[in-house]
Write a structure and sequence with these properties.
The chain has 13 helices and eleven strands. The strands form two sheets. It has a seven-stranded mixed β-sheet, sandwiched between helices. It has a four-stranded antiparallel β-sheet with strand order 8-9-11-10, covered by helices on one side. The chain starts with a helix and ends with a helix. By secondary structure, it is of the alpha/beta class. The mean pLDDT is 95. Pfam families: Cys_Met_Meta_PP.
């Protein structure tokens, strides 16, 4: 296995994805790791149980299947260790619980994933953690918000639904100077297009539900930590009795094999559609970091290796009382785009973006905000479907 790791170190992305996370020689040459389902694990003797003298001790502490996925994610993230959780939201909330205590202060980006905001405003508040939301474009200005009891700065770049870019390296430098940790929700880019730990982030989170799984049938989240944070994260994970399903781990590991190919297709198609939308009179603006017109484009171009299939646009409408009416007409006319939450799967989706809870990063006022997930369908068919939406909205 060590020889394999050596040659994988210098391999290309697709080659790595085809081979990380499993050594066929460990399982009689089978290409994919077996699904090992377990609760009880037997010990040979009572002495070997006290203290445990074998790698696997109980189902919640990992199996060969879940370990294979963790090893693969570590290879992608450059992390010291990874935990597997039952959802992307859990990948955010568990580190918050692991590293924040009563009396602590946490800075959370205002463009954060909305269910994470709900957790902060309810559970963390009840536990005596003060959460302060900050402008995603604050950059070096975040230093003025840091207090002696600030323990965590949470980032998400691009931001949820409105895609604001953050200068992650500056944020980590300032946070670390004051003894605070930095976490990042990196679901949009995945570690293929942005590796948070390379930019100083301590805890990299992603919803494996999205691009790693890739087929809209798995719920999972991962958190990858640097060496300093790994022991605390691992201990909290074990203390809460959390564990990833062997079947879901197997499916996500299988999804990783094609993730680079799929993500490249999502990227190309989304950029083409974003440019097409930007040229339309019935579109007020397009929120996509890869567009030169986007305010955060320079940061994206400097730090990211690519873009995913998720972006938003503003349907032109001057009267706020008609925003919902126009948006619903647009969505209801679509035939290929599904109306549903989540993203990262093979199919295209469209929803009215939820940005209602923000206090700083306010949503656009020039029309309703529509979020698109561009799937693996042909661009010409997706454009024709969006035309149906625009025609329906124009009749309202």
């Amino acid at each position: 296995m060590s020889e394999k790791k050596d040659w994988l170190t210098g391999a290309g992305t697709n080659t790595k994805l085809c081979h990380i996370g499993h050594d066929p020689s460990s399982y009689h040459g089978f290409v994919n790791p077996p699904i090992v389902k377990a609760s009880t694990v037997l010990f040979a003797t009572a002495e070997s149980m006290d203290p445990p003298q074998q790698k696997y001790t109980y189902g919640t502490r990992g199996t060969p299947t879940t370990d294979a996925l963790c090893e693969a994610i570590d290879a992608l993230e450059g992390s010291a260790g990874t935990i597997i959780l039952p959802s992307g939201l859990a990948a955010i909330t568990v580190p918050f619980l692991a590293f924040l205590s009563h009396g602590d202060h946490a800075l959370v980006v205002d463009s954060v994933y909305d269910p994470a905001r709900h957790f902060c405003d309810t559970m963390l508040k009840r536990l005596g953690v003060e959460v302060e939301y900050y402008d995603p474009t604050i950059g070096a200005g975040i230093e003025a918000l840091i207090r002696p009891n600030t323990k965590l700065v949470h980032t998400e770049s691009p931001g949820s639904n409105t895609l604001e870019m953050q200068d992650i390296r500056i944020l980590t430098e300032i946070a670390h100077r004051h003894g605070a940790l930095v976490s990042m929700d990196n679901t949009w880019a995945t570690p293929l297009y942005f590796r948070p730990l390379d930019f100083g982030v301590d805890l990299s989170m992603q919803a494996s539900t999205k691009y790693p799984a890739g087929h809209s049938d798995i719920l999972m989240g991962t958190v990858s930590a640097n060496a300093a944070c790994w022991p605390t994260l691992k201990a909290a994970y074990g203390a809460m009795g959390l564990c990833g399903s062997a079947e879901d781990s197997y499916m996500v590991l299988r999804g990783l094999r094609t993730m680079a190919v799929r993500l490249a297709h999502h990227d190309r198609s989304a950029r083409e559609i974003a440019q097409w939308l930007e040229a339309r009179d019935d579109v007020a603006s397009v929120l996509h970091p890869a567009l030169p017109s986007f305010p955060g484009h320079a940061l994206w171009k400097r730090d990211f290796k690519g873009a995913s299939g998720l972006f938003s646009f503003v349907l032109a409408e001057n009267d706020p009382t008609r925003f919902k009416l126009r948006a619903h007409a647009f969505l209801n006319a679509l035939q290929i785009f599904g109306i549903g939450w989540s993203w990262g799967g093979y199919e295209s989706l469209a929803v009215v973006a939820n940005v209602g809870g923000r206090t700083i990063a306010k949503p656009p006022t020039t029309g309703p905000l529509i979020r698109l997930q561009i799937g693996l369908e042909d661009v010409v068919d997706l454009q024709a479907d969006l035309e149906r939406g625009f025609e329906a909205a124009a009749k309202v």
